[in-house]
Specification:
single chain; 529 residues; alpha/beta; 7-stranded mixed sheet
């Protein structure tokens, strides 16, 4: 696969390397990757992520793509899921990601848009909400707001209910981008006094929270622009890491000064930061209250031009690398069987002698048995054709699992008859019960399953279907609606097993009961009191 390698000179070097592997990680087909200032600092050797090893490294930290291989740690992100997040080694055709550090791409975003968001979302939400303690109604000053991260900060503050958002730039040409992002007030810090403008916009109070992405000499003006009891969060140091600060102003205004970075945080700490987006930020992205601010998209083979463009400082918004051209095969898809049916509720045996089978199970402690003779399902079809199939059935529970014994009666076609005719006897199907029968039925058909037989026991809310899944004896899948009288009988069978003292091991009951006959149901309910 293609990869952009850092640590071998002043620029990334394209190399063909083996796809990465890591136990427990998601493997992502990279469709797009965001370019960040930190990627340039990593080239210079002034930024090293905590999870990055020594020596040459696959560059990139912000990714959007499709899960190729899922992880046992994230069953909610199966193969085929479009995701975005942070990782090490995003500038490659394939990346591995800690499943805690990615989220599903909100509906409506393409991959280049999605790749522009993760770093900005986690940076600004962590600084604004987690660190500074933002609540709706606070006023927010964002310094260095025309950066891709700053533009997200402007939108986020508005989306979360800031009373006033003030955003800074160093050129009038970029003011409109701040207004478009939702800024109530814009400040050109090269031509205007920052504190003066902020105080005027906040009735003399100053900003409740200040997020600074610039550092350097401008940082000295922030305490005067921030409210009494307010909070200043140092996020970036684009201008420089050094500054002069009037500590009297900080002290007299009783302000909190916080610093933040992600480079030294552990995976667990980063996971908490990503997880915090779920409640409010991702819904705001889906509604477009927070939207991508793309500056330019470069093909991955033009990565050096992308780096030069970012260094120039001329852009407004995010620079993204497009890796999609490398992926010409269909997107990976999850195994259609995985988790679709839920948990096994019943093990079904097809036998030649139901009574002998019941006695065999009684010898192992399974009972009591409820025996129904001549059960005829309604609307029964076998491979799409009507069939007058009848069967003798016995059911009992072993804990939470029901055991079913079936013997077809007569010569009417059915999958039970096929099973015996093939010389088999024993487990024929595994049954899954559902209260959303139609939904599960439709999902199974969409996943490629074919119905072998189906019908109803107990009316419209007692449907069942058997799929053509017998890869070897005992692997037929049945889905069954557990409603109406069928549910009543199944609940009774389990209750009887839970309280069984060994007496009355076999009880023959009226087949009309599970057929939905009101008189039979009334009779058994009266007998039970």
């Amino acid at each position: 696969m293609r990869a952009l390698i850092g640590g071998k000179g002043p620029d990334w070097v394209r190399e063909d390397i083996a796809p990465p592997e890591q136990l427990g990680a998601l493997r992502i087909r990279v469709m797009a990757a965001g370019v960040n200032r930190a990627d340039l600092y990593a080239l210079e050797g002034t930024y090293t992520a905590n999870s990055q090893g020594d020596g040459p490294f696959t560059a990139g930290m912000e990714v959007a793509g499709v899960v190729e291989n899922g992880s046992l740690l994230s069953p909610d992100l199966p193969a085929g899921t479009p995701v975005m997040g942070i990782t090490v080694g995003a500038f490659a055709d394939t990346a591995i990601c800690d499943p805690r550090l990615v989220v599903p791409i909100p509906h409506g975003l393409d991959f280049t848009e999605a790749a522009s968001l993760p770093v900005g979302l986690i940076t600004e939400h962590d600084a604004l909400v987690t660190q500074a303690g933002f609540t709706a109604g606070d006023s927010v000053l964002i310094v260095g707001a025309t950066s891709s991260i700053g533009l997200i900060g402007v939108q986020m503050a508005k989306a979360l209910g800031a009373s006033t958002v003030i955003a800074t730039t160093t050129t009038d040409a970029k003011r409109q981008a701040l207004v478009d992002a939702g800024a109530d007030v814009t400040v050109n810090t090269r031509t205007e006094d920052l504190a003066e403008v902020v105080l005027a916009a906040t009735d003399g109070a100053g900003a409740t929270i200040t997020l600074d992405h610039v550092g350097g000499s401008l940082f000295a003006a922030l305490p005067a622009a921030t409210a009494i009891g307010g909070t200043i969060v140092s996020i970036g140091r684009l201008a420089s890491t050094g500054t002069e600060l009037d500590l009297d102003t900080v002290a007299f205004r009783r302000q909190r000064l916080l610093g933040t970075t992600f480079s030294i945080r552990t995976r667990a700490e980063l996971a908490a930061v990503v997880g915090a987006l779920t409640a409010h930020v991702l819904p705001a992205v889906e509604s477009r209250a927070i939207s991508p601010r793309l500056d330019r998209v470069f093909d991955a083979d033009d990565a050096l031009a992308a780096a030069q463009h970012l260094r120039s400082g001329q852009g407004v918004g995010k620079v993204v690398l497009d890796f999609s051209a490398a992926h010409t095969t269909p997107d990976p898809a999850p195994d259609p069987v995985a988790t679709i049916f839920g948990g096994i509720a019943q093990i079904g045996y097809v036998v030649r002698d139901v009574e002998a089978s019941m006695r065999g199970f009684l010898a192992t402690g399974v009972g009591p048995w409820f025996y129904l003779k001549g059960v005829r399902p309604q609307n029964f079809t076998y491979r799409g054709e009507r069939s007058d199939m009848a069967m003798d059935v016995a059911i009992a529970n072993s804990g939470g699992v029901q055991i079913e014994l079936i013997c077809p009666v007569g010569d009417a076609p059915s999958m039970y008859r096929d099973f015996l005719a093939a010389g088999n006897e024993g487990v024929q199907h595994l049954a899954y019960w559902t209260e959303d029968y139609q939904g599960l039925y439709d999902r199974a058909l969409a996943a490629g399953f074919t119905v072998g037989q189906e019908g109803q026991i107990g009316g419209a809310d007692g449907r069942f279907a058997y799929f053509e899944t017998e890869h070897h004896p005992g692997t037929v899948v049945e889905i069954s609606d557990v409603g109406g009288t069928k549910k009543f009988v199944f609940d009774l069978v389990r209750l009887a097993a839970d309280n069984w003292d060994g007496s009355n091991p076999i009880q023959e009951i009226d087949a009309n009961l599970v057929g939905g006959d009101p008189a039979a149901l009334a009779e058994i309910m009266a007998a039970l009191g």
